[in-house]
Structure formats: structure tokens, C-alpha cells
TrEMBL record:
Pfam families named in the record: SpoU_methylase
Gene Ontology molecular functions: methyltransferase activity
Domain called tRNA/rRNA methyltransferase SpoU type: residue spans: 8-161
Family stated for the protein in its record: Belongs to the class IV-like SAM-binding methyltransferase superfamily. RNA methyltransferase TrmH family.
InterPro entries associated with the record: Alpha/beta_knot_MTases (IPR029028), RNA_MeTrfase_TrmJ/LasT (IPR004384), SpoU_MeTrfase (IPR001537), tRNA_m1G_MTases_N (IPR029026)
Record has S-adenosyl-L-methionine as a keyword: yes
Keyword annotations of the record: Methyltransferase, S-adenosyl-L-methionine, Transferase
Annotated organism of origin: Orrella daihaiensis
Any Gene Ontology biological process: methylation
Keyword S-adenosyl-L-methionine attached: yes
Superkingdom assignment: Bacteria
Name under which the protein is recorded: RNA methyltransferase
Length: 255
């Protein structure tokens, strides 16, 4: 099956600022996508503009692949599920959802190998028209501050691309990997034997500094034991606490 990432298209409708095109290319590449289209751009050479190249910050491969079309409908010709990004509620038009719901819907939709998804963004000045929204199957909102909900188009695209990536990747890939770093055995969870040895040492240290009276321990001992048991200590942490115990006992003896 073709990668789901390769079947997600990002469309900037009527863009007028080359910088936003460059920033959009960077956002697309950051999140592992590469299909960026311009619908009715103000200028057909926007991807080659110095400002676009500068703000792409190395994502020149995405800039070079950008395709343009004279109208939005042409960019959506092969698309089976398109989301129109807008901050405004619409009286008429497709059903609305938020971006997280849209990402989940896209993930399910892309389970079929012949399905393709598009995320459609409006122009910088006025967003998408009702006619442009009508070309999509869903309206999608980013739940920003209601008092100031209009995002820069490249910022909106970055948020959308992130949500799409998070929905599509395996949960195991959501944290950075460190293949060149060898596992540190000290970070492994301490064994029950180590915890019990720590507890005995800890009790000895508390007696030495006269914090614990062994003749009248009350509930201090079981409470300390419960604290150490539930702390999820690593072996390094056990060794550190045992070093503290040794220092406490030595200081008490010297005094």
C-alpha cells in the first residue's frame, strides 16, 4: 500500500505572499509530507521567490515539487476527502469538525489504498469563499481563541500537518529515538531485593540521626516502606539514597 503520508495533499488557495509558501513548505516537510499545491496563486513563480526559499529553511525539495492550478477544483480532482480550514461558522455547507476529529477521520479514510485526503487553506486576506468551501466534504476548525481566532495561513498549516502526523504515525514513533545511545542499566527499575535492602539501610540511618525511635516506631516504618515501594525507583536512585544513608550514619557517629 502506498504510504498514507504520500496521499495527503495540502492546498494553499490564492496565496499572495511568497514567504507563506516557503513557510508552508517547511511545515509540510517537518511533518513528513511532500504534496503541496497552490490554487490560483497571485504569481506562478512564488516557489522560486527569494523570500519563499529563505523561509523554507532547507525544504527546497518540497518547494521544487509544488504544483499550481488556476482554480481550487483542479487541485482536488483526485481527492476523495477534502477538509476546508476556516475560522468562521457557515450557515450552509459541509458538516463541521475540529482539527483533531478531522485527523482521525483522515486516518480512517486512508485505510483504503485508493483514497486521498486534502487539507485546504484560504488566502491570507479573506480565507475561503463559500464556493470554495462547497468543493470540500468537511469544514474543519482549529479551536483557537474565539476573540482572536484568525491564524496566519502557514501557522495554521503547521498545526494541521502536526495533527495529521500524530494521527498517522505509530505510537512508538511519537518520541525521538536514540539508536546510538546504549541502554543505561542504572536507569532500569530497581528490583524488590534492592528496595528491601534500601529500606533496611534507610531505617538504620533514621535511627542513627534519632528521627526514628525503634522502641516507639508508631506508623513511621510502614509509611516509609510504602513511600519507597510506590516511588518506582531506578537502580541509580536506590544507590543514591543508600549513599545518603551511609552519610547520615557516618555524620551521626562523628557527632
Amino acid at each position: 500500500m502506498t504510504s498514507a503520508f504520500s496521499r495527503v495533499r495540502f492546498v494553499l488557495t490564492e496565496p499572495s505572499h511568497p514567504g507563506n509558501v516557503g513557510s508552508a513548505a517547511r511545515a509540510v516537510k517537518n511533518m513528513g509530507f511532500d504534496d503541496l499545491w497552490l490554487a490560483a496563486p497571485q504569481s506562478s513563480d512564488m516557489p522560486q521567490a527569494p523570500e519563499a526559499i529563505a523561509l523554507a529553511s532547507g525544504a527546497t525539495d518540497v518547494l521544487e515539487k509544488i504544483q499550481t492550478a488556476p482554480e481550487l477544483g483542479q487541485t482536488l480532482a483526485p481527492i476523495t476527502l477534502a477538509f476546508a480550514l476556516t475560522a468562521r461558522a457557515r450557515d450552509l455547507g459541509p458538516p463541521a469538525c475540529d482539527i483533531r476529529e478531522a485527523a482521525a477521520m483522515a486516518r480512517e479514510h486512508l485505510q483504503q489504498a485508493n483514497h486521498r485526503v486534502a487539507m485546504v487553506f484560504g488566502c491570507e486576506r479573506a480565507g475561503l469563499t463559500n464556493e470554495q468551501v462547497a468543493l470540500c466534504q468537511r469544514v474543519c476548525h482549529i479551536p483557537a481563541n474565539p476573540a482572536y481566532s484568525s491564524l496566519n495561513v502557514s501557522q495554521a498549516l503547521q498545526l494541521v500537518a502536526w495533527e495529521m502526523r500524530y494521527a498517522l504515525i505509530d505510537p512508538a514513533d511519537r518520541l525521538p529515538s536514540t539508536p546510538d545511545i546504549k541502554p543505561d542499566p542504572g536507569k532500569a527499575a530497581a528490583s524488590g531485593e534492592s528496595i528491601q535492602a534500601l529500606f533496611a539501610h534507610w531505617e538504620e540511618a533514621l535511627i542513627a540521626v534519632k528521627f526514628l525511635d525503634p522502641a516507639h516506631p508508631k506508623k513511621l516504618v510502614p509509611r516509609m516502606q510504602h513511600l519507597l515501594q510506590r516511588s518506582g525507583l531506578s537502580q541509580d536512585e536506590v544507590d543514591m539514597l543508600r549513599g545518603l544513608c551511609t552519610a547520615m550514619i557516618k555524620a551521626a557517629q562523628q557527632k
